[in-house]
Sequence to fold (209 residues):
Amino acid sequence: MEIFTYGGPILWVLTILSVLSLAIILERLWFFKVQSTDPQKLETALGERLYLGDHKGAAELLMSGKSSLHRVLKVAVDHWKADSDALQILLEQEVRRELFKLERGLSFLAVVSRIAPLLGLLGTILGMIDVFRNLPGFSGANMAMMAEGIWKALITTVAGLSLAIPVILSLTYLQSKVEDMEETLSRGVDFIIREKLLGRGENVEGQNS
Fold:
């Protein structure tokens, strides 16, 4: 609590931002863990069912998983009777919907990574202003008090950088996961459109035409 007294309101703001950032990072890590799947294995299993015209088996296969790829492919199976162009437009809309879910919270982390060092610098500047405002009263042994005031003012800069660095690293990792998932979804759409053009699953009864 003594440190927070030195850092002032800025340090409390940085602490709140750090708690929120940690919560988002942990939630996103868990989310991506749930989203993990083997796309090649899934596409192979789905392709077999489409070849046999087994709509029920294809739907059950896709409903058994919780990943974005499962949901996108499930939409394709449900609308299998639609023509290829309409199906591709529908799948692209679904991919955008999934990407929105994947990117949730990342914009907040991006903002924190930018403003945390600035907030820390602002806290230090405010502390230095207070030190220099009292500078005329410093002399001789009082210079030790001035030095103490300076290091207290630097606390917020350290706090800001300590928050920004791990947030930047986490954000970079999470963005790479989003990019990987986007590529997986794009390949999934290509796969399902190829199966459609090849005439696979012509006997599949989609839920919608």
Summary: The radius of gyration is 27 Å. The mean pLDDT is 84. Residues 2-197 form one domain.
